[in-house]
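Budget justification aside, the reviewers requested a transparent look at the raw inputs and outputs of the sequence design task funded under Objective 1. We therefore reproduce one unedited record. The lines immediately below are the structure tokens for a 430-residue chain.
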């Protein structure tokens, strides 16, 4: 299956074809330009039902088939291509069509059977030609919802091939001409009711009843004021029936208790939050990590937040001495069917998988000092059940490296002693 090829591809990169750009950061493996990742801002990984991986970027849409990234670009005056190369989100409808949202030029639908694109430059008609769709969400009933800039919430109607519009605040702008009014940045399902959606708006958190079409807005009040820093929600994660987590622009990670209707801010940089600094504590995405922790993407680093202890663990900073080329902005967090967690960032994407965490224990092989002029590279691995050892064939130097079951170095088996050009392509046991 394709997702097995995806694992195999990255495993081959890890064990045989590693490049300097590929490094582990707290269990995450980084892939950059050398592996075909666009040298640009990468927003989100999406896995389609046929297990292809799709990458949304500011320079086009990319499909990964397990071996290479295939780009899809917009062409001027060609309505059979993408309407824009700045891709904000990706989703698949219940018919298998791939939907792609853009910055300013509506959405696009790819018919997977015919391979044809259809553009929806203005899903709803008004006087503003700039149409930005932030987020797609497919609910449990298979309906496709869209969060927009100033047009509120949209629902795609398959029968009419059109969009129904729902405005959170009818007293404010409805055409996207006024920033932060009727913006829906993130959509999530309620943990208990199939009829309820929760919306991350830039003016508060909204509860939307899909049957009655009624909105309820909850404001994060601090010192008697609903300040923008505490209510500009850009992402949302529903943990369970009682807890919602929100990412704010400047307000950090915010918890909403559905029972008490109270908000609590957890900024990664508390001192900057106290200064009301909007340039810090910017949360771009939230994802599941464990029963006690969340992954949190920010403009300054990637974190694990333990919501039991209320503490942040820095996984990867924006820039440090070890990761000099690591980008500053972390974006989408995605879980795929092979058990991987993907994180997108500028110029890089990151993958965490149980296989990689195990393999990552030996990134540098043991090498006797002064014996050879360059390091050997691993080409294949054999696990010998009887001895509980890993035997690894290499491209030079000591032909076989032997590790125990915990990847502790045991010995090397040389080929003709000093022959440095020997390459063992494979190793098997009869």
């Amino acid at each position: 299956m394709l997702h097995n090829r995806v694992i195999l591809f990255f495993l081959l990169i890890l064990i045989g074809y590693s490049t300097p750009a590929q490094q582990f950061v707290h269990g995450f493996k980084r892939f950059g330009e050398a592996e075909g990742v666009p040298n640009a801002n990468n927003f989100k990984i999406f896995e389609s039902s046929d297990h292809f991986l799709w990458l949304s970027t500011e320079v086009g849409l990319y499909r990964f088939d397990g071996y290479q990234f295939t780009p899809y670009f917009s062409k001027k005056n060609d309505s059979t291509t993408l309407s824009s190369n700045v891709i904000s989100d990706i989703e698949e409808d219940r018919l298998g069509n791939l939907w792609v949202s853009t910055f300013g030029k509506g959405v696009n639908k790819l018919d997977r059977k015919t391979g044809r694109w259809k553009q929806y430059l203005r899903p709803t008609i008004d006087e503003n030609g700039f149409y930005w769709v932030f987020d797609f969400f497919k609910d449990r009933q298979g309906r496709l919802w869209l969060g927009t800039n100033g047009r509120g919430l949209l629902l795609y109607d398959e029968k009419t091939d059109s969009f129904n519009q729902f405005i959170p605040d009818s007293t404010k702008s409805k055409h996207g001409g006024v920033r932060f009014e009727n913006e829906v940045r993130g959509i999530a399902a309620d943990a208990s009711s199939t009829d309820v959606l929760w919306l991350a708006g830039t003016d508060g958190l909204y509860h939307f009843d899909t049957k009655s079409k009624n909105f309820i807005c909850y404001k994060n009040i601090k010192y008697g004021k609903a300040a923008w820093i505490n209510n500009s929600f850009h992402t949302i994660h529903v943990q369970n029936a009682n807890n919602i987590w929100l990412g704010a622009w400047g307000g950090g990670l915010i918890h909403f208790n559905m029972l008490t209707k109270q908000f609590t801010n957890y900024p990664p940089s508390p001192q900057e939050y106290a200064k009301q600094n909007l340039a810090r504590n910017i949360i771009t995405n939230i994802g599941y990590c464990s029963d006690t922790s969340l992954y949190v993407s920010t403009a300054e680093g990637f974190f694990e937040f333990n919501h039991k202890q209320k503490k942040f663990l820095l996984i990867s900073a924006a820039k440090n001495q070890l990761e000099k080329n690591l980008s500053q902005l972390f974006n989408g967090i995605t879980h795929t069917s092979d058990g991987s967690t993907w994180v997108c960032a500028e110029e890089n994407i990151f993958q965490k998988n149980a296989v990689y965490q195990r393999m990552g224990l030996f990134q540098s092989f043991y090498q006797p000092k002064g014996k050879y002029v360059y390091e050997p590279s691993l080409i294949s691995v054999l696990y010998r059940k009887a001895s509980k050892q890993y035997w690894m064939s290499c491209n030079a130097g000591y032909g076989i490296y032997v590790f125990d079951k915990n990847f502790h170095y045991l010995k090397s088996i040389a080929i003709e002693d000093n022959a440095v050009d020997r390459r063992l392509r494979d190793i098997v046991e009869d």
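Helices lie at 2-15, 228-231, 270-274, 354-359. The longest helix spans residues 2-15. Computational costs for records of this kind are itemized in the attached budget.
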